[in-house]
Amino acid sequence: MSSAAPDHPSTDPARIGPEPGLPLIRQNIALQQNSLPPPENNGKRLLNGGGVGFSVQSLAHMNYVEIPSRLGSPSIESLESRSRQRKWPISYGAVSSLALTCDALAILLIGNLSGYLYSWYAITLSDGALHYVGSSGMVAALFVCVMKAQDLYDPSELLNFKTQIIRTVATWFSVFLFLSGAAFALKVGAEFSRIAISTFALLGLVSLISQRLFYKWLLRRGLAKSKFAGRTAVLITDEISAGSETLVPTLLKHSFRLERRFVLPTNDNDHPDIESFTARIADYVRGTDIDEVILGINADRWSDLSRLLSGLRLLPLPVSLVPVGAAADILKRPTRILGDSICVELHHGPLRPFERGIKRTIDLCIAMAGLTLLIPLLLAVALIIKLDSPGPVLFRQTRCGFNGRKFRIFKFRTMSVMEDGPSICQAATNDARLTGVGAWLRRTSIDELPQLFNVLAGTMSLVGPRPHALAHDNQFAKLVGKYAFRHHVKPGLTGWAQVNGHRGPTPTADDVQRRVELDLWYIDNWSLRLDISIIARTFIEVFRGRNAY
Known about the structure:
It is built from 18 helices and ten strands. It has helices at about 75-85, 95-120, 130-150, 155-160, 160-185, 195-225, 245-255, 275-285, 300-310, 325-330, 355-375, 375-390, 440-445, 450-455, 470-480, 495-500, 510-525, 530-545, and strands at about 230-235, 255-265, 290-295, 320, 335-340, 340-345, 395-400, 405-410, 460-465, 490-495.
């Protein structure tokens, strides 16, 4: 950081840190004085750094930036010190292109190497090996295109190693399945060796996963040490806006070089002198090597912002807005296009359409397979119930499902009563209402198997919060404030609460509270792996027989 005094007297209120001995970014300068011509650009920086700019198109993805807080975060002085260190010859934004290129080159190299090694091993001419050049190129092109379409090369996504592994494996095998089907349809599969293709698939996947470890290390180290090369920028902030002061450490961390910081005049007067303010900035920037102008201004001052932007259009530089205040929260949320309008999703459902589709597909497959395999058992149980006691085989009761929709649940009848009214007594140990085979059916959970028909009908899912009788729903909703949140997903044959020992009746308010907590945790943390785990643990829980009566 240069400490040389400028040729002109230090009277420019827009300049950060003109006075010796004061931290550059910690001075709050009011812009109420006349500006002076910009100092001669002699290659020295008031604040060194590096990084990548945030364009207007990427404002919604600012949530991945780790903004230092006042407590327990690097100080601005330490960030400035890091910014003076030697930089890598790559910017933060260029990591995306680097990762895409490395993936493509690795796939091409491994694909060709697998083909040539097999050709050498099989002692054949290299004409056959030439097929692997084209196939490797197709695999590389398809893979990087699909990954790019999912935004998986964005630096924020490359830091999410778990998501990277899952999506990389899924995309890799999907590409191979697609090309295998194409080769079969075109009758060219005989020209490729299964050994070479298998080697290509295995080594390629290992290489891609290893590269994701490298990308994660590169980004973490580059951000922590401010190693990325970056753009030179001028920062314009609104001091009255909450969050504007965090922009400086954020930009430094992402390796911007901040030449100066300007503070937008306040609205003390009805008409702040925006034109004069803009002219100062233009005079300073013109003739320098500044790459970008960054605005950190509250959207509440949109009229002033529009006037400022109108003046800045005179400069041949990109102008980026990093929203602060309420606008920042809004733009972090998912958006979609509705004609000429933009729709912001303020609250999303527990499961997105793709996730609901996966869950429904699994429900249908397992329910149909289960009913097909269990037909002999279901018929035998129906016959035993009919011979054991008078009454219908199936017990039907109204329950509350997804979004509060009522449906009729099916169970094998285990009691001598068919209660479905405003007052229902929960089952208890040695309940006198149980039939001869009812206790056994409930202990083994065989009485729940007819709910596979509910799963097929779409009123229930295999996994989800267990539905209660309407009388109990009304009672429990008064005990637990968030009880209705259980209806954000379809009820299930089994659930997270059941495999964690909360199966059967809920005689106390604490039992209801704990079950609801577990159900809500499941809704908030749903995943396909979690559903499979719950289904597997359900069989263990049935054999244990906890609270089954």
